[in-house]
Amino acid sequence: MHTALLQSPIGPLHVTVDEGGLTALYTAEHRLYAATEAPRDETFGAVREQLDEYFAGTRQTFELPLHERGTPFERAVWARLRTIPFGETATYGEIARELGSAPRAVGRANGRNAISIIVPCHRVVGTNGSLTGYAGGLPTKQQLLRHESLFAGRLSEPPGVAF
């Protein structure tokens, strides 16, 4: 397992990969891990490239090997998160209804997502559209949603305003 620190428009990102793929991507506010120099690894290179494209507004989906660690329910929630389109949101209640569960259970699984941005837990909002809970901090969640709205054509401000 290797961990590296990548710089991004929202601050440092701590990236962890193992032989199975990407296992974690945390913002500085989320969790801190000791970062090593980024190994010359194919997965690290792909993560760095795809995140750069995402922040430049040229990538809306990610094509990375993921090695998610969680319960079957958590993995089902995370799989559902990956279906929320770039620039859009879903509520905890909507996801819970689809999975036959309770919104709080979805919220707990969402909070245990170790691969932020790639598994877009920032796209989940409260029933009334309010920004609720984000391990990377609500300001970061707001930045990510604003960034996606700009590049999805939902806001008319010029690129770069989000960061």
TrEMBL record:
GO terms for molecular function: methylated-DNA-[protein]-cysteine S-methyltransferase activity. One of its GO terms (biological process) is methylation. The active site is at C121. The keyword DNA repair applies. Gene3D superfamilies: Methylated DNA-protein cysteine methyltransferase domain (3.30.160.70), Winged helix-like DNA-binding domain superfamily/Winged helix DNA-binding domain (1.10.10.10). Residues 1-66 form the Methylguanine DNA methyltransferase ribonuclease-like domain. It comes from Solirubrobacter phytolaccae. GO terms for cellular component: cytoplasm. It is found in: Cytoplasm. NCBIfam families: ogt. Belongs to the MGMT family. CDD domains: ATase. HAMAP family: OGT. This enzyme catalyzes only one turnover and therefore is not strictly catalytic. According to one definition, an enzyme is a biocatalyst that acts repeatedly and over many reaction cycles. InterPro entries: MethylDNA_cys_MeTrfase_AS (IPR001497), MethylDNA_cys_MeTrfase_DNA-bd (IPR014048), MethylDNA_cys_MeTrfase_DNAb (IPR036217), MethylG_MeTrfase_N (IPR008332), MGMT (IPR023546), MGMT_N_sf (IPR036631), WH-like_DNA-bd_sf (IPR036388). Involved in the cellular defense against the biological effects of O6-methylguanine (O6-MeG) and O4-methylthymine (O4-MeT) in DNA. Repairs the methylated nucleobase in DNA by stoichiometrically transferring the methyl group to a cysteine residue in the enzyme. This is a suicide reaction: the enzyme is irreversibly inactivated. This is Methylated-DNA--protein-cysteine methyltransferase. Keywords: Cytoplasm, DNA damage, DNA repair, Methyltransferase, Transferase. Residues 72-149 form the Methylated-DNA-[protein]-cysteine S-methyltransferase DNA binding domain. Its EC number is 2.1.1.63. It catalyses: a 6-O-methyl-2'-deoxyguanosine in DNA + L-cysteinyl-[protein] = S-methyl-L-cysteinyl-[protein] + a 2'-deoxyguanosine in DNA; a 4-O-methyl-thymidine in DNA + L-cysteinyl-[protein] = a thymidine in DNA + S-methyl-L-cysteinyl-[protein].
